[in-house]
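During the second half of the funding period, the structural biology subgroup turned its attention to how the target accommodates small molecules. The most pressing case was glutamic acid, which had performed well in the primary screen but for which no bound structure existed. We therefore specified the complex as follows and requested a full 3D prediction, including the ligand pose.
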Amino acid sequence: MTHPLSDRISSLPVSQTLAMAAKARELKGQGIDIISLSLGEPDFNTPDFIKDAAIEAIKQDYNSYTPVDGYVELKEAICTKFKRDNDLVYQPNQIVVSTGAKQSIANVAQVLLNPGDEVLLPAPYWVSYSAIAILCEAKFVEIPSSIDDDFKITPAQLEAAITPKTKMVFFNSPNNPSGSIYSEKEYRALAAVLEKHPQIYILSDEIYEHINYGVKPFSFAAIENMFDRTITVNGLAKAFAMTGWRIGYLGAPEWIAKACTKMQGQITSGTNCIAQRAAITAVLAPVEKVQYMVDEFETRRDLVLELLGEIEGFKLNIPEGAFYVFPDISAFFGKTVNGIKIENANDFSLFLLEKANVATVTGDAFGAPNCIRMSYAASVVQLKEAIQRIKDAVS
Ligand code: GLU
């Protein structure tokens, strides 16, 4: 039976990251020993000093509705953070706190995009960018890259993708899923192209900022003449192991921030009060306080690269940030492996789930059909076991 759902929801793809995580959970629930490398979620606990701040907020009776755009103390703390880490000078009226960076991004898209506008997505890109564009009835245009270019696009590619209908471009560095980081020089070269097209707004998703292995990411809005056209999105989920707390935020020109507040005021209102109070402590904490997690991720990255590098058919780049590897596995296409015909990345990801009991995410969901994404935000024991299983399954 077909239910009378709207065209809007019918045309929306399911989030493949969340779908794969749900599938892994379901199989585990059936007693199957699945190792899930699907979801981008730190396996650490939220640090105690942040938990303490939340407990204190509960004791102090923070229980009422919050201002739609966030507590003023939190917005001030975010301004301090932007100045400290990114050399960006935002005022509190340019900050909007949301229920996760995902909502920040959705807000921006909703307030800037009209049906038919074009959104440029350098691929690979995070799965929800394209879905959010679809919800706005905008057209997303992929700009492909490959593992040989370290999954980065060139200024010439950007220029070629721009049309009079282009309204936005999404940048994400460190990148989910490739882990690549654009240098200041590379970003400036892309900005030089955008300078010629003043109708284009830039969304810079910097959620993986602190998870980098020695290469400090550069904020796009720090390019002088890009500041007034850039929306900088960040949040607490990844670096502070606070995925479930749902705190994201943006810094933007005031007129965009105001529009996002208006949108949020009709959809969800202000973000959870306890999480916001704890976020003040997290945002103001010296980054060194969470460095132990980053160091651990780096050790795991090196381990995963070494072990996967031993498997024929896995082509790897060296991710400089985030906690994913994004191997090109197209060498398996057209082959029958362990009795299963592999035509594409989707088949390969399902093959790994079935034959190795390892959950990954197909690169198709990220606009990179030759690859699969594996998160190494899992224990060393699990990572070793997962890769051994993969090795056995493909050998
Ligand atoms: N951003 C994370 C990921 O890519 C969490 C899941 C999601 O929201 O997509 O796995």
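Two results from this model are relevant to the next phase. The radius of gyration is 21 Å. The mean pLDDT is 97.
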